[in-house]
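Subject: design request, 349 residues
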């Protein structure tokens, strides 16, 4: 045994364990309102914070102590004052910020609750179905994607596609496939009142949320359809998917159905996790997160339906191959709007 390796691994493993408990503490801070309180009132002793936020001091002190040790909040030993830096609140509490990552504070607990099922599937095959993760996962997915969609979708992402924004201003048919809680479809309907927007999702619970949020918006509707059920008799000018294709039980067929539902000059904007199709290029913290969420959710929910289990890290090389096989004549990565977490692709028939 190599003593240095043992010590190094002990250090690294302790960091992983602390990361897990820190996410647990942050999930509690998120749900209890502590994180939002600290965004507005960033400093105080645990007693001052607990009183002002109407929370239990003993919990607040233990949570803030853990967050101080993890470097999430600062601690002044002389005054016993904890301070949440404004920059950290962008990630933890400010749902209007594109940096907001609080969706993970729903998603990680939701996927951890299904570890037994994923272990059983690892031993015997099959998977854990999307619905097993419950409403917390649906909320987490939306809170994960909605902040950047709200800030960028109609202001940067769609305008980055040549001539698309002008076409949408005039009026067009748009579909958002795998629409989840409906944020992207609703944003497009509001930004382009001359367009008719349809959201499709195979999750009935997601469609219920989307419908309840859009009752007063006339040019958007939601259907509890799987991608194969999208009608082709009234084709679309634009189809969008946000983190959907890798989740499909049959991604190849799904892409074909999307192409068939487009007008001959229609456009398909596909957002997928930023990754290479080759593991050796993904050996980073972002890669660990991606394969982790994939095994614990994306891949297993596809395998639960006897699907391909493509996985969240299917990557750009494979995406291009799938697009060609589905009959798309053109495949283009939109470098201007792709970022370290998400890649955008424009596919045209
Ligand atoms: C990771 S979520 C993304 C949701 C949404 N696009 C967003 O940005 O928040 C993937 C979505 O794809 C949906 N989905 C999975 N398989 C589908 C299928 N065969 N047809 C339609 N939607 C599907 C899931 O129900 C889920 O809402």
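Subject: RE: design request

Done. Sequence follows.
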């Amino acid at each position: 045994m190599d003593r240095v390796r043992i010590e190094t691994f002990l250090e690294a493993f302790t960091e992983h364990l602390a990361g897990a408990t820190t996410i647990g503490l942050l999930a509690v801070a998120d749900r209890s309102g502590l994180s939002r309180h600290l965004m507005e009132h960033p400093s105080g002793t645990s007693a001052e914070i607990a009183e002002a936020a109407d929370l239990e001091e003993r919990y607040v002190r233990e949570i803030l102590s853990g967050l101080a040790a993890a470097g999430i909040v600062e601690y002044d030993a002389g005054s016993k004052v904890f301070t949440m830096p404004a920059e950290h609140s962008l990630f933890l509490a400010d749902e209007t910020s594109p940096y907001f990552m609080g969706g993970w504070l729903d998603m990680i607990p939701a996927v951890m609750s299904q570890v037994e099922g994923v272990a059983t599937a690892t031993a015997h095959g099959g998977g854990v179905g999307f619905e097993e993760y419950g409403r917390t996962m649906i909320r987490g997915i939306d809170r994960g994607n909605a902040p950047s969609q709200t800030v960028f979708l109609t202001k940067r992402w769609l305008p980055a596609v040549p001539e698309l924004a002008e076409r949408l201003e005039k009026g067009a048919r748009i579909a958002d496939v795998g629409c989840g809680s409906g944020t992207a479809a609703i944003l497009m309907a509001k930004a382009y009142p001359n367009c008719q927007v349809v959201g499709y999702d195979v999750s009935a619970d997601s469609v219920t949320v989307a419908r309840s949020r859009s009752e007063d918006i006339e040019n958007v509707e939601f259907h509890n359809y799987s991608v194969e059920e999208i009608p082709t008799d009234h084709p679309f000018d634009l189809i969008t998917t946000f983190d959907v294709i890798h989740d499909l039980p049959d991604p190849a067929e799904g892409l074909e159905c999307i192409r068939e539902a487009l007008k001959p000059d229609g456009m398909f904007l596909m957002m997928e996790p930023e990754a290479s199709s080759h593991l050796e290029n993904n050996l980073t913290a972002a890669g660990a997160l991606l394969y982790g969420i994939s095994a614990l959710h994306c891949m297993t929910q596809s395998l639960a339906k006897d699907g391909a289990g493509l996985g969240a890290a299917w990557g750009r090389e494979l995406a291009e191959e799938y697009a060609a096989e589905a009959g798309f004549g053109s495949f283009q990565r939109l470098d201007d709007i792709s970022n370290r977490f998400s890649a955008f692709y424009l596919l045209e028939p």
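The longest strand covers residues 262-273.
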